[in-house]
Amino acid sequence: MTDQRWRQLHPSPDLDPGFRWDIDGRARFLHKGFVVNVLIRQATQDDVPYYRGDIQALEFSSNDVILVGTVSLDGVELSHAEFGADITDPHLMGEALISVLDEAVDDARGQVERLMRRIADIDTKSN
Predict the structure, then answer these.
(1) Residue 1 within a domain
(2) Is the N end or the C end of the chain the one with fewer CB atoms within 10 Å?
(3) In terms of pTM, does the model score above 0.90?
């Protein structure tokens, strides 16, 4: 999988253009200037149904995984994104990774913008 929008930072960032997980199912990527921590975990029955593209998966499979992406700045978690995929399908895994990275970064930017507006409102009212 090759996508120039992200770069893997952990683990094994210098391997082929695919992506890797450490033994605990964790990875770290640089995406649009943000560090996104990604956890891959086995999907549970509680995760069903989740969406894979336009197809709603209604049945639980042992191949189903959930990718969870978070962005933190200065120790504050700003976003949390999840996307499901079939671990045996490289195309779906790649789509899930890009979706998680995009959503996590977009949510982090949105959260910071909301906080900045809120602080500006507070400052305006306190003056």
Answers:
(1) no
(2) C
(3) no
